[in-house]
Amino acid sequence: MPVYILLFVAVALLSTAAGVFLWKRRSARRRESLQKAAQLLGLQFLEGEAAYEQAQRERSDEGLPTLPMPEFLEKFARSLSAPRLAGQFRGIRVAVYEEVHSSRSGSHTESVFKAYLALPLPFELQLRKEGVGAKLAKAFGGQDVTVGDAAFDAAVRVKANPPDVAVPFLRDEERRKAVLAALQAYPGIKVCRTHVALSRQGSLKGGDEIKEVLAAMVPVAAAFSKQ
């Protein structure tokens, strides 16, 4: 066999081994970071099959269908399920995990934070801090529901489905204050029928940063849980 082929094979094997080593080291560091975050926040750290089962429970609670798959694929998915945090934070059930989204241009990781509501809502909201992007969207016909509070309407872009059901909920002062406080820290949140959600580009950081996100979201979930 020619020497250059042997060199090519050797380089390929070394590159693969180095890649696996680096991936394992990053995974170990991320695992350790999330375990410390769980301890700091009083949450459960789940991985593997336990993380898979928790994700399935959350899908069920959110009214999402369980995707059927062959048994061998389900076993594989259980074993490789990404770590996640779950439990109660300041009296509200929360979930924290990462998702990988793929497209033609590549893949990227998002950190997902959820704070669950006491009872399902009859509407959904997308709430964004007013800015250049929101103003451009409105200029091109994007929805912006007003609630009659001049300060709130000037600060927040509201997309609601259905608007006539959602607006009365936003006329509650406690809910508006919770939304404004969250949007001072983060540009956008979503109030789904079963939970408040916030996504951020990139991997999960340390416990202090996770705590900051949850501390902004939980008052919103508590306010919208109030009947």
- What's the N-to-C terminus distance? 77 Å
Query: In percent, how much strand structure appears in the residues?
Result: 15-25%
Helical content stands at: 40-55%
Mean pLDDT, rounded to whole units?
84
Order of helices and strands: HEHHEEEEHHEHHEEH
Model regions low in confidence, pLDDT < 50 over at least 5 residues: 17-24
Taken from the alpha-carbon principal axes, the silhouette is globular
Q: How are strands sequenced across the largest beta sheet?
A: 1-2-3-4-8-7-5-6
Number of helices: 8
Largest beta-sheet characterization = 8 strands, antiparallel
Q: Nearest-angstrom radius of gyration?
A: 22 Å
DSSP strand tally: 8
> Structural class, judged by helices and strands?
alpha+beta
Oligomeric state of the chains present here: single chain
Structural notes for this entry:
The protein is an alpha+beta fold. Helices cover 52% and strands 24% of the residues. The protein has eight helices and eight strands. It has an eight-stranded antiparallel β-sheet with strand order 1-2-3-4-8-7-5-6. β7 (188-191) and β8 (195-201) form a beta hairpin. α1 (3-41) crosses α8 and α7 (173-185) runs antiparallel to α8. The chain is globular. The model is unreliable at 17-24 (pLDDT under 50).
Please specify the SSE layout and strand pairing.
Blueprint: H1 3-41, E1 44-46, H2 48-61, H3 71-80, E2 84-89, E3 92-103, E4 106-116, E5 124-129, H4 132-139, H5 150-155, E6 156-161, H6 163-170, H7 173-185, E7 188-191, E8 195-201, H8 207-225
Antiparallel strand pairs: 1-2, 2-3, 3-4, 4-8, 5-6, 5-7, 7-8
Helix pairs in contact: 1-8, 2-3, 7-8
